[in-house]
């Protein structure tokens, strides 16, 4: 796996510090509340697991799954809900947790869908943001890092379902996905 990585963008230690910072912000902003953290599968599973263990507030954890990617590196624009949260979100404070905000197609579909469920509040928390690729606008309350337009893997993020278990975030060598397009 490591041989497919061009460069390590964020080390395990850097990610740890970044996730601690976000956990502290959420703890402060939601003091006295019990937010429902909804992780968007699969990519958010590592980030969410680390984030909630650094938080001191009581929380609930839910998952949803949406897919706009095939095995390529570009979003297709049409987003399918593959798994929906079955809890009643009415009156709840919801934090949607995503690994990376890219085109915005996924979150711009999920945010209105969840807001429609009469939530008390809904905010978006992303570990990574690629603002240069945005097609649809998404408001982000908590952001780990803004990154340039490169395809990254590790810490939950995949290419073709691989590399999710790397304990750091790295830029994937372009030849790995360019080969797949042949
Ligand atoms: P969006 O709908 O284009 O904003 O894309 C969001 C989804 O695309 C994320 O949840 C990721 O699964 C995937 N994605 C976007 N950029 C990357 C990347 O650099 N590496 C891995 N997955 C990515
Ligand atoms: Mg994803």
Walk me through this protein's architecture.
The chain is 25% helix and 29% strand. It is built from four helices and nine strands. The strands form two sheets. Strands 4-3-2-5-6-7 form a six-stranded mixed beta sheet, sandwiched between helices. Strands 1-9-8 form a three-stranded antiparallel beta sheet. Helix 1 crosses helix 2. The two termini are 21 Å apart. It binds inosinic acid and magnesium ion.
Report the biggest beta sheet as strand number plus sense, adding barrel if it closes: 6 strands, mixed
- What is the count of β-strands? 9
Looking at the overall shape, the CATH architecture is 3-Layer(aba) Sandwich
- Helix and strand run: EHEHEEEHEEEEH
Please tally the helical runs, counting DSSP H or I stretches of 4 or more residues.
Answer: 4
Strand order of the largest sheet: 4-3-2-5-6-7
Total individual domains:
1
Silhouette = globular
CATH topology: Rossmann fold
Alpha-carbon distance between the termini? 21 Å
The secondary structure category is: alpha/beta
Query: What fraction of residues sit in β-strands?
Result: 25-35%
- What is the chains' assembly state? single chain
Radius of gyration: 16 Å
**Helical content (DSSP H or I, runs of 4+):** 25-40%
